Amino acid sequence: MRLLAAVLATALAAAPALAQAPAAPPPAKAPAGDGQGLGKAALGEIKGSFPADPANRALMNAVSNNDLKDLSYNREIYNSYDDIFSDNVTAKGITNQKSSGRCWMFAGLNMMRPVVIEKFKLESFEFSENQLFFWDKLEKANTFLGAVIETAGRDIDDRELQALLVSPVPDGGWWNYAVDLIDKYGVVPKEVSQETKHTSSTGRMNAVLDRMARADAVELRKMAAGGADSGALDARKLDMMKEFYRVLVLHMGWPVEEFTWRVKDKDGAIHEKSYTPKSFYGEAVGIDLRDYVAVVDYPAFPYNAYYEVNYCRGMYDRPDMGFINLETAELKKYAMRAIQENEPVWFSADIGKENDGDNGILAPGMYDYESLLGTGHDLTKADFIRYREGSPNHAMVFVGVDVKDGKPVKWRVENSWGTDRGNKGYWTMYDEWFSDYVFNVIVHKKHIPEKIVKLLDTEPVRIPAWDPMRSAFDQR
Predict the structure, then answer these.
(1) Of 103, 142, 176, 447, which one is the catalytic site residue?
(2) pLDDT, tens digit, for every residue of 45-97?
(3) Which of 258, 239, 18, 33 is nearest to 142 (CA)?
(4) Is the pLDDT confidence value at 438 over 70?
(5) At what angle do helices 129-150 and 103-120 cross, to 10 degrees?
(6) Which of 196, 138, 200, 197 is nearest to 168 (CA)?
(7) Is 405 helix (H, G, I), strand (E, B) or coil?
(8) Does the global pTM surpass 0.85?
(9) Who's near 413: CB < 8 A, 6+ residues apart?
(10) Residue 91's pLDDT is what?
(11) Contact 202/99 with Cβ under 8 angstroms?
(12) What is the mean pLDDT of residues 344-371?
């Protein structure tokens, strides 16, 4: 009885507040007789369009009892496929991001691996993704909380704020995330900072981090609404960041500050030297990543212009993701030039489309759903992403191209899904697939005409934070 009384007292105390809350708007009602409902006549016509005759029944039995991929697999493409390429980048070893959304980071580090292998005459080499991931998560938490303070005066239903709340501390990222992290924190060999249970499978850790971030957002917005000044908000955020650091250490270990790297090269000589992460990057890689340019094929926006995506960054005090928007033919041209000069090329694409993951083939029509189901829904590349049919949701590295009569026929792709998938970790991408599903390549500016590079100096056109180009990577 005491418990019931307490519950009733709580409900009665809350009643006045509930009464004052604004009423939700009534649901929209369709005008009477507008013809949009499924009436008896419409249903009869729909049902009559696919009768239960023997042919349709056999098709229904086949489809309902089998995997669509098995039924629609295009044997002609498989039989004509080969993995021979006219131009190849010197690359060794396949990495594995496992159950995480770190493809952008793996692709960025994999792009630099051949430099280290060649410089130190190694059989193979891999950077530590664990080390860079630690700083990535810490910086993303700080970026999110900084954005919460920045937008504290906005309504909670503000569209940009809602986009940030979807995934406060995500795994996903873009090329610029990797560039900024390496510039600030450097890199270390994998053996110095190994993967942990939570970097190999990030789901539970991410749930903890996202809940922490959202709870902190509630507190910071309440403080701001109560009149707290910027000094008080910043001081509280610093305490929150200390908590993020502690939780990240528990999941990933302490980040490496100094280390000794001891390695034997192909000739049997031993290299041993002490480094900091930044000094190791300077000696082992030494590439100025700021010389690389993001070129994107995003036909929803005008070409030959420079764009930046709001809140598309991993660090609060670094620029948003910027790119030059060009037609697909230009992306292919610059990527081919880089590969032919033995340079791997970072790129992003919609990996979920027309992907034979067992054999490592990316080809339009790889699964002939149209012939099987009688469907055909062609979308332009602009509408493909605008209407969220797909997105640039995975980053990989081009390490080869097959050129005939001066034009690319197919591309060799190094993935980060281990050697058990694809063709021992590699994929063959047909050029038509590139046209349909590749959105972004990263190449050195020397491969791009100067008049195009100069677009980087123009005032950027801003793309909102809720655009699919940003949300695709943050939500992987």
Answers:
(1) 103
(2) 999 999 999 999 999 999 999 999 999 999 999 999 999 999 999 888 999 99
(3) 239
(4) yes
(5) 140
(6) 138
(7) coil
(8) yes
(9) 362, 396, 397, 398, 399, 426, 427, 428, 429
(10) 84
(11) yes
(12) 96
Q: Is 157 helix (H, G, I), strand (E, B) or coil?
A: coil
Q: How far apart are CA 472 and CA 363, in angstroms?
A: 22
CB 409 within 8 Å of CB 431: yes
What confidence tens digit (pLDDT) does each residue in 120-149 have?
999 999 999 999 999 999 999 999 999 999
**Which residue in the block uniquely carries the two structure tokens 């629609």?**
72
Give yes or no: 359 in active site.
Answer: no
- Say whether 312 is catalytic: no
Marked catalytic residue, from 74, 96, 251, 394: 394
Higher pLDDT, 25 or 274: 274
Q: Is 452 exposed, middle or buried (0-12, 13-18, 19+ CB in 10 A)?
A: middle
**Contact of 397 with 110, CB cutoff 8 Å:** yes
Chain-centre distance for alpha carbon 129: 16
Residue 394 annotated as catalytic? yes
- In this prediction, residue 16 carries a pLDDT of 38
> What is the torsion angle, in degrees rounded to the nearest 10, for the CA atoms of residue 101, residue 104, residue 106 and residue 107?
140
Q: Cα–Cα–Cα angle for 285, 290, 296, nearest 5°? A: 115
Q: Give yes or no for residue 377 having a pLDDT over 90.
A: no
Q: Which two tokens stand for residue 320?
A: 């948003």
Of 415, 440, 444, 447, the catalytic one is 415
Which residues are CB-contacts of 414 (< 8 A; sequence separation ≥ 6)? 91, 94, 110, 344, 396, 397, 398, 399, 425, 426
The C-alpha atoms of residue 288 and residue 265 are separated, in whole angstroms, by: 25
* pLDDT (average), residues 181-199: 98
- 8 A C-beta contact, residue 425 and residue 124: no
